[in-house]
């Protein structure tokens, strides 16, 4: 009898602890949600009880994403799709008004939108990624999505969180390359001279490092109004990359493998919930140990 009581008591306290992860009654917005990790972020928040607005500039991809989420056994009312161009201030303001006019508020913002720059351009030219040949047009486009977009969304949605007195959470999705320089040896191709070797473009590192600076700025800006901001920096995620690339990268990771797509979900739930209520301004690096080796 005493053993049964102790077990019930343990379950009760475990339930109380897990309650801090409960996002029921919360509404979240994810930018760039039709991408690889954006969908996983949405699944994580819905599993914790939140209603999620998935946004992306690609409307057809959004529709498909919602179908996949509903097919994942989630209720349709938990997922809303809204097309959003994060580089356009008017587009962000329009979505903010849409949320306000619905009688609801936004509790969580995940700045996830980004362009993953390729080591080759559309013509298959690897030298286009090199700093000496990197175009100003590509620089401006990628900065606009990955960094300016995060600023605009934080500025508009974050202000709404602060101004209604209820606070909220902003989470910036950065990268292990926010704290590491890219190892260009990962991208080398046999038979190419050094000045034509593909490289990870400069924009990726600049954007992800910039997001950490934005995170720290926002963390102190609205802290007195209960808006906190953190960053999550994922390591490399396996998505069908060549075996040559995977072998090279995993050799740099103490755990000896790349991340699976769903391995960041628990971190998303933690950082967006009251389980991390006293965490503010931090960059959580989840890279299998790569950055400490």
From TrEMBL:
Protein name: Oxidoreductase
GO molecular function: oxidoreductase activity, acting on the CH-OH group of donors, NAD or NADP as acceptor
Family from the record: Belongs to the short-chain dehydrogenases/reductases (SDR) family.
Classification via InterPro entries: NAD(P)-bd_dom_sf (IPR036291), SDR_fam (IPR002347)
Keyword vocabulary terms for this entry: Oxidoreductase
One Pfam entry name: adh_short
